[in-house]
Design a protein that fits this description.
Elements lengths: L1 E6 L14 E8 L1 E6 L2 E6 L3 E4 L5 E6 L13 E7 L2
Antiparallel strand pairs: 1-7, 2-5, 2-7, 3-4, 3-6
Length: 84
């Protein structure tokens, strides 16, 4: 298992991920839109998502500026990679 804290920029790279391991992500602050297996999903602070291995996914948009509900916070994630 690998745990990481990620702070996203306001302009995410258009990389399509297809990982060999499961991943669980929690949005700690900010807002984001992801594409998971062709479906667009909107996330807000406190939302989480399980992404099974070999599920194509990418980050479409993240908040770069602090939100009114979270002054001083941009888009921050907790990601847990469940590697074999």
């Amino acid at each position: 298992m690998r745990i990481e804290r990620i702070t996203s920029s306001g302009e995410p790279e258009p990389v399509l991920y297809d990982q060999a391991h499961d991943e669980w992500v929690l949005l700690l602050s900010g807002e984001a839109r992801l594409e998971i297996a062709g479906e667009t999903i909107a996330l807000s602070r406190g939302d989480y998502l399980f992404i099974p291995a070999h599920t194509p996914h990418r980050v479409l948009q993240t908040s770069a500026e602090p939100t009114s509900a979270e002054p001083g916070c941009t888009c921050t994630w907790l990601a847990i990679h469940l590697e074999a």
